[in-house]
Amino acid sequence: MTAGTAAARLLKPLPRSSWPERWLTRLLLAGLSTAAYVLCMPWDLRNRPQTPGSITETTPVTNLGVTILAVSLLALGAYAGRRDRLPLAVLLVAAPPIALLYASFASHPDPEGIFPWQLVWWFFSIVMAAAVLIAAAVGRTFREDDDR
What we know:
Number of strands: 0
Number of helices: 5
Distance between the termini: 28 Å
Mean pLDDT: 84
Helix content: 55-70%
Largest sheet: none
Structural class: mainly alpha
Shape: elongated
Low-confidence stretches: none
């Protein structure tokens, strides 16, 4: 197999691929988006105040981690949009991090009940899904066939 045929195979539209190749690629996309979230957003269940008496808790999340996650999801979204249908691209790339974000928020109880984590989750879910959809649409423009 030459480099040209390998590249052509990696960029061939998934609806034209064989069943195993199509679903293995989709599982790989979902797995990579999950791995990106897990690696970039460390999960520390031992939240504690920054200083005694402070209401601000420590967090292992860094700006660099958020940036790497965003770039990873955009790249995966563009690749998924290039190869597959747009709704599936959003479902495969954005849904796993959205589900993990929900699990992260739901697992950290708020003793005072003042943090509206459901609203924050909805906001970031919409932002992630919209960004992946836009990246998938941009990736779709580079598709060379008429089957859009």
